[in-house]
Amino acid sequence: MKPTGGPNTTKKALVLPGAGARGAYQVGVLKALATMLPESAPNPFAIISGTSAGAVNAAVLATRASRFVGAVADMEAVWANFQAEQVYKTDNWTMLKSSAHWLASIVFGGLGVGTPRSLLDNSPLRELLAEKIRFSRIDRGIKRGHLDALAITASGYTSARSVTFFQGREDLQPWSRVRRYGRRTTLGLDHLMASSAVPLIFPPVLMGSEYFGDGAMRQHAPLSSAIHLGAERVLVIGVRDEHPDAEPHVPGEAEYPSLAQIGGYMLDTLFMDGLYSDLERLTRLNLILEQIDHSKLTGPVGGLKPINTLIILPTEDIREIAMRHVHELPRALRLLLRGIGAMNKGGLRLISYLLFESGFTRELIDMGFRDAMAMEENLRSFMFDQSMDTLNSRPDIKRGLMSG
Fold it and tell me: In degrees rounded to 5, what are phi and psi of residue 364?
């Protein structure tokens, strides 16, 4: 049953971390949230912050801020019908050329052939985003009060800094911390392409005088952008299930990791480890603030206040879902991935980030919807400013929630 009204006045933030093809899971969670709101309800989040593929989902919500249910429906229509060729080139000639270029570069040290910019060409993604996202609508949503700010994070290769580009209300101020800062700007297509430029896999993007890549690379405090922009409650939709492989019991039984297994491990670390560390810091800080009268704090700590945080994570092993759909990838791409050891269980983590095929994305959307509905009571407490005492006060990743 839908409520008669929308969320109340507490400033809520939605944080969507990097995800690759796993971003479909975020769509499923958002679909569940949409069932809890009236059909005509505007976007319920004052701040939307995204990184990598999460930045794309964030931008879609921000550009359709007047109708949250409609925005999620449009998002699902794209994700549920994805094909890899809409994200990166998968034709035989491109795959052959890429493989040959990398091999020649290694053999000849880049002499005569140049250094490859990336493993895959994601120009189709640029075309898709240019067609689907109207960035001018971000300012309209802000002026109408449906949104305070949209924040997109990318990593500068020259400055070695994490930069959160944000577009928002005029009273929101930039910030500067060690190797991370917030910069006010008018967001556009390059910001999304830069934020989602996974290192080595997709090419970096030149903005101004610096090349930028995936925002997760230097994002040691993924929640900080939302908090700087005024968030009082934060909903995080993660993309990593907590199903580690059991350690081998027989000495020498473990296989040497393939390049794909190492690459998948790196992406897993890149997208989620910083988030978990930041959530743990926030939880500890909240516990400290509960023991003191934080309203009497002054000086540099004068603005500290508890931040309630709820995180939703996949409950199933995403690698097993990827295994059921890996055959959907174009043959040329499968051959390229097989060459780096990706076509076995060890490499499935990498494949799950690249598997932009409808069979896989639809399963993730369904899982995201189920996982969110299983937490419906907590989500309603979060969304409608009800008491959150029912939430655990310490991290519990297995249950898929965290309360600050």
Answer: -70, -40
Query: To which residue do tokens 């400033």 refer?
Result: 11
Bridging pattern class, strands 233-237 and 12-16: parallel
pLDDT digits (tens, 9 = 90+) for 370-398: 999 999 999 998 888 765 444 443 333 33
**Cβ contacts of 187 within 8 Å, gap of 6 or more:** 59, 135, 138, 150, 152, 165, 166, 167
Task: List alpha helices for 22-144, DSSP H.
Answer: 23-34, 53-63, 68-79, 92-108, 123-132, 136-143
Q: Six-digit token pair at 155?
A: 């990593």
Q: Are 75 and 364 in contact, with CB atoms under 8 Å apart?
A: no
Residue among 229, 202, 233, 230 nearest 215 (CA): 202
Strands (E), 293-380: 308-312
Residues 325-352: pLDDT tens digits? 999 988 888 877 777 777 776 778 888 8
